Amino acid sequence: MNGSAATKPRRFVLVAVVAAVALALDFATKEIVLARFAPGESVPVVGDLLRFTLVFNPGAAFSIGTGMTWVFSLISIGVVTYIAVIARRLRSLSWALSLGLILGGAAGNLVDRLFRPPGPLHGHVVDWIQLPNWPVFNLADSSLVVGSVLAVVLAFRGVNIDGTRDGDTADGAGDGADRDGPSGGADEDGGAAGRDGGEGETR
To answer: How far apart are CA 9 and CA 144, in angstroms?
Structure first.
């Protein structure tokens, strides 16, 4: 099983591409919204189903923990660093897509916290997408959610980051045990026959 995993191509380039696309789209849309809307301004797009509303969020995704901006900044830095480290070990296409989305989403909001007012690690995140009965969010939040949901699905299905599956490893071990069993039995039978023959000659 290790051999089959080693033959799979590494996916760190895909992680970087997905993250870069997610980051670029998030940054571009935020800049467009900042240029066209005033803070607090809300414009209906699809009736009451979808509105563009510009707000500045000092907390985490979906306005959680608004008084702990610096904590979420450090968490985002940790997430980005961790994914960047393990990305070189990735051989799973699905995991590369998942972690790329998470990396791009985390980086998108981290850019806001580092470079937007009121200052580094305390910057407010630009949110602008509003749905009924839901906090205002942005494309980085969406990327984080989609990537996290995909990661949960992959983990539940036993898909490893090297492209193997937990069930496949167990099956391979079982096949090896089956092959060892008959050969071992044959050796024992042969040994018993040899001992019987030797005893007969002695007698």
So the answer is: 25
Q: Which helix (H) or strand (E) holds 89?
A: none
Q: In the sheet that 50-57 helps form, which strands lie side by side, from edge to edge?
A: 42-46, 50-57, 125-130
DSSP label of 159: B
Which of 30, 11, 169 is CA-nearest to residue 113? 30
Enter the DSSP assignment of 44: E
pTM given for the model: 0.76
- Residue 61 is given by DSSP the state G
Residue 82 has pLDDT above 50, yes or no: yes
Q: What secondary structure letter does DSSP report for 123?
A: P
Q: What is the DSSP letter of 134?
A: S
As annotated, the active-site residues are 127, 141
Q: Give domain limits for the chain.
A: 2-164
CA distance 22 to 140: 7
Give the model confidence (pLDDT) of 126-142 as tens digits. 999 999 999 899 999 99
